[in-house]
């Protein structure tokens, strides 16, 4: 008997990937290698999930704590670019997929697997992100997407198939929402949220207070940045992973980071999405503010445009693309002098920058002041205005302005 071919599966332990794990064995006659990655999701027991995969017939399973790598090599780039898709969404799901893909490719090489599989549907963004990342890292590996080809049309169908094939299922009750979470926040969709007229129920939020129930007293927090990366909170030095965890707790306590939006998915469908991103929201606000103090004007203006392009590339699954890597290089160059301290006031759902200081600040008090310390040469203003307005003056004299 010839040896079975192997497939690497990104395995979360939930219903979908549990059914996929067994389906690959039953329908494709493949040996499954499961990889369980912790990128900061809700306190899941990776050892338990790993054992569950083995109990279901996986020939091997790897449980990997990816949180520090995720923070240091992925979220630092997101913060450098102030990554916000459609100028709103902090890209939390799109940021974790390339890291998980990298590990899947590494495991496939380690075990000599012919395939990589995922449990994404044929309607969402993640199928594109996983497959594009895998193709960028090893275009020779064949990708399997069971949910796109099986005939299990509903969750009840999946449940029935799972019971018939001995797949342990987490619950027999339909979950009201679909949730994806990691260090950078939580994404919530489906259920009553599919009607944009419905206000998001309070039970969808789990890491933040409602602004109404947030503390009645504001809290001031100082965040220290070194070359664009947060290195301390209120003077206490810590690594970026710890900063994120601390800021999730502080900002979440004050109701910061709740987002409800109509989002344009890459497949062309508009989707109602809710996000809960306390740390990401607060840190991006602080980082953008410090950049206004430390970056030269034209660099700042250009960066703002490129930030939108960066977010678009990442949202569309192109983390490993040449353009995105070139944009990373630009962002990294801009961060060399983004060093200083930002003071934020947290109160009732708001995170407001109320103070900044930096040893490399381009803000010159004497140039900006209107007081006795003023060193600005006002005599230069007329020549500047004459030259700036010269093209308009010539045009007006020859063609005239059409005023309506």
UniProtKB/TrEMBL annotation:
Pathway annotation: Amino-acid biosynthesis; L-arginine biosynthesis; L-arginine from L-ornithine and carbamoyl phosphate: step 2/3
Entry EC number(s): 6.3.4.5
Family, similarity comment: Belongs to the argininosuccinate synthase family. Type 1 subfamily.
InterPro entries linked: Arginosuc_syn_C, Arginosuc_syn_N, Arginosuc_synth, Arginosuc_synth_CS, Arginosuc_synth_type_1_subfam, AS_cat/multimer_dom_body, Rossmann-like_a/b/a_fold
Name assigned to this protein: Argininosuccinate synthase
Organism field: Slackia heliotrinireducens (strain ATCC 29202 / DSM 20476 / NCTC 11029 / RHS 1)
GO molecular function: argininosuccinate synthase activity; ATP binding
Record-linked SUPFAM superfamilies: Adenine nucleotide alpha hydrolases-like, Argininosuccinate synthetase, C-terminal domain
Domain named Arginosuccinate synthase C-terminal: residues: 177-394
Catalytic activity from the UniProt record: L-citrulline + L-aspartate + ATP = 2-(N(omega)-L-arginino)succinate + AMP + diphosphate + H(+)
Principal location: cytoplasm
Keywords associated with the record: Amino-acid biosynthesis, Arginine biosynthesis, ATP-binding, Cytoplasm, Ligase, Nucleotide-binding
Location of this chain's protein in the cell: Cytoplasm
Pfam families: Arginosuc_syn_C (PF20979), Arginosuc_synth (PF00764)
């Amino acid at each position: 008997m010839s040896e079975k071919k192997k497939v690497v599966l990104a395995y979360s332990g939930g219903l979908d990937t549990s059914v996929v794990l067994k389906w690959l064995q039953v329908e494709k006659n493949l040996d499954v290698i499961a990889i369980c990655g912790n990128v900061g999701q809700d306190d899941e027991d990776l050892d338990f999930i790993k054992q569950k995969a083995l109990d279901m017939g996986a020939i091997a399973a790897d449980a990997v704590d990816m949180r520090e790598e995720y923070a240091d090599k992925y979220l630092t780039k997101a913060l450098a670019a102030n990554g916000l898709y459609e100028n709103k969404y902090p890209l939390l799901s799109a940021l974790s997929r390339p890291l998980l893909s990298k590990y899947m490719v590494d495991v496939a090489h380690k075990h000599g697997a012919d395939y990589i599989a995922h449990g994404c549907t044929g309607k969402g963004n993640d199928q594109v992100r996983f497959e594009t990342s895998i193709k960028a890292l090893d275009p020779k590996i064949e990708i399997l997407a069971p949910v796109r080809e099986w005939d299990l049309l509903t969750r009840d169908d999946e449940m029935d198939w799972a019971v018939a094939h001995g797949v342990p299922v987490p619950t027999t009750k339909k979950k009201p929402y679909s949730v994806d979470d990691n260090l950078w926040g939580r994404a919530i969709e489906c259920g009553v949220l599919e009607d944009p007229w419905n206000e998001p129920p309070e039970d969808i939020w789990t890491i933040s207070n409602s602004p109404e129930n947030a503390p009645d007293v504001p809290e001031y927090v100082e965040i220290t940045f070194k070359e664009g990366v947060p290195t301390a909170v209120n003077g206490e030095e810590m690594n970026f992973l710890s900063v994120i965890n601390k800021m999730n707790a502080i900002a979440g306590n004050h109701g910061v980071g709740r987002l409800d939006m109509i989002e344009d998915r890459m497949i062309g469908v508009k989707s109602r999405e809710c996000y809960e991103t306390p740390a990401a929201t607060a840190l991006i606000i602080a980082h953008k503010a410090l950049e206004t103090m430390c970056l030269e004007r034209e660099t700042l203006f250009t960066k703002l445009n490129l930030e939108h392009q960066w977010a678009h590339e990442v949202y569309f699954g192109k983390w490993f693309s040449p353009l995105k890597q070139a944009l990373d290089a630009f962002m990294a160059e801009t961060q060399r002098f983004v060093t200083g301290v930002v003071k934020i006031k947290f109160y009732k759902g708001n995170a407001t920058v109320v103070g900044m200081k930096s040893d490399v600040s381009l803000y010159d008090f004497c140039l900006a002041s209107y007081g006795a310390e003023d060193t600005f040469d006002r005599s230069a203003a007329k020549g500047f205005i004459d030259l700036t307005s010269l093209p308009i003056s010539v045009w007006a004299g020859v063609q005239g302005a059409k005023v309506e």
